[in-house]
What we know:
Layout: H1 2-8, H2 17-40, H3 44-71, H4 75-81, H5 83-101, H6 108-136, H7 141-160, E1 168-174, E2 177-188, E3 192-197, E4 200-205, E5 209-214, H8 220-231, H9 241-244, H10 247-262, H11 264-276, H12 281-291, H13 299-320, H14 333-348, H15 367-382, H16 384-405, H17 414-417, H18 421-451, H19 462-465, H20 468-481, H21 497-509, H22 522-536, E6 543-544, E7 547-548, H23 551-578, H24 584-595, H25 610-625, H26 627-633, H27 635-638
Antiparallel strand pairs: 1-2, 1-5, 2-3, 3-4, 6-7
Helix pairs in contact: 2-3, 2-6, 3-6, 5-6, 6-11, 6-12, 7-8, 7-10, 7-26, 8-10, 8-25, 11-13, 13-14, 13-15, 15-20, 16-18, 18-20, 18-21, 18-22, 21-24, 22-23, 23-24, 23-25, 24-25
Amino acid sequence: MKAETEKALPRQPGQSPTFRTAIVLASLVGSAxxxxxxGFRPEATTRxxxxxxxxxxxxxxxxxxxxxxxxxxxxxRHLRAAxxxxxxxxxxxxxxxxxxLSDVPAKTLPMIRAFHTVLLLFVLVxxxxxxxxxxxxxxxxxxxxxxxxxxxxxxxxxxxxxxxxTSHDLRVLRDSTPQDLRGNILSETATGLWFQxxxxxxxxxxxxxxxxxxxxxxxxxxxxxxxxSAVCVTGLTxxxxxxxxxxxxxxxxxxxxxxxxxxxxTFGAVFALVFWQELGLRQSAVMNDLMTPTMSVQISxxxxxxxxSTFCVEAVGAASLWNLWPHDAGTxxxxxxxxxxxxAVSAFCNAGLGLYxxxxxxxxxxxxxxxxxxxxxIIGGLxxxxxxxxxxxxxxxxxxxxxxxxxxxxxxxLDRRRLTLxxxxxxxxxxxLLVAGLTAIFLFETLPNTYGVAPDAGARPFMAQVSAGARxxxxxxxxxxxxxxGFNTVPTEQLTDSSKFLVVLLMFIGASPxxxxxxxxxxxxxxxxxxxxxLLRNRxxxxxxxxxxxxxxxxxxxxxxxxxxGLIVAATAxxxxxxxxxxxxxALFEATSAFGTVGLSAGLTPxxxxxxxxxxxxxxxxxxxxxxxxxxxxxxxVKRLQFDYAAETVxxx
Length: 653
């Protein structure tokens, strides 16, 4: 009887292969229509056809939502489980009702925007469902991690190749000589227009503007390089970010930085928590392996902490940068907000991408550059495992203090009050590297110019022309940004060779594990140093803070060091061979900057040929995902031997 009842029940649309195929097609067709409309800016007739396709896609999703409720054997339970889909439908109905009842003369465009918003939300839900199923499969976490970054890079490159992603070409008269410019038109007045390029904002008189036309779309190598640099939060560029790309292209780059900094799997897991209020066992295990392997915590709390803390820190950073930008008529409130948000996100994610070709050189003496930017860079570079551990310890100590003040005995919370070994190593290594980098750069830029001053002061490097106080301030910023951020307040090519080599070492070490930065990581460097120190003291195992570091962690650290060193050596040699006239130190600097996802450049990247671009793209990708993670993600890295050979000693040293 029960079998007959179950057989009589209609199959759920979500379980039907036909419906799943239809959902995928509707998502792809709807997304393609949005890309065509916003990326190619078609004519009115073509736009009307795209609107029809988008409306039909939204109608399909609404019908699919209604059918799932109708065929559900427990409709109230299904309504509670799929509340987000019905919320999207109610949002669209409310939006359309408000527009219909308003006095707006042109109601078509607001209604179409409502359909666009609903379509994007439905597609977001389907992408989240796909990521949830992907995490539930038996793929290795490293394979999912690497694949998600590669897919995001390809999607970003495709968006940046759209015609709407590039800016305008202008020809203007300057000193009676025609000059070609590249940038965006911010606003137009009766007397001229405000123009934004990589050099900043500029007012162009109307009688000096000879030609304005839309620039041609970006070629595939430029789009792929920029997308890889944004997703891998590197900051190396082959074109001007502020002048070459349109506002649409800059928004795409900003989204790629945010998604690449936190990881697309993190966003997928967070949306899964929002939609379904829980993660599956397999998905929780995958996220725990990717994000918090050093702590036994509830992964859902960590994910929500990451998202909320990221947006809070970035919001505070953007608000602090509000008054940094020029106060001219071309910088509107919206443009100022975008400049603040773009640079705050880029700093926190340690991307180093900015909308000014000179980076922060023009703002180097402001408090925002020397306080806000370093704070965002350091917080983003510590890693979410460290910040979460610090927040737990802070909350536990605050609760204990509040309980004692109320005259009660606090409950024991030993696990919440203890800083992990990972946190201690990260904070110690970060502090030592910041102080050592500041001191060494200051000395390297002071001593050679003290004992070998050129007769002509203008011929001396930039750091030799400033006061000792300013040199100390610039050395501080370079020490912070060199390990993974990529912003600069002094011309990198004017540093002494000693400072350049020190920056190479800092870039090689990079940020901390679980952060938005690259490099071999501070904890890897700290573990190797602890191992060497323990060996020199004739200890059988590596120790730090009264804890023994497991042998497999030491082996992994040495493996990362060797793989990273080999990659940089190979990339440096190839760059020296394939880029004519390149100095060895500049090639080493560029290769290390790409691997450490730093973004500082000695001037080589913009002049790279096609082979050089592809090489740096590969180095940036390996540097972001990690050489060991990439090797594990390969089929040869998944297999594990089930036996050991007989041991035999060899002579070393």
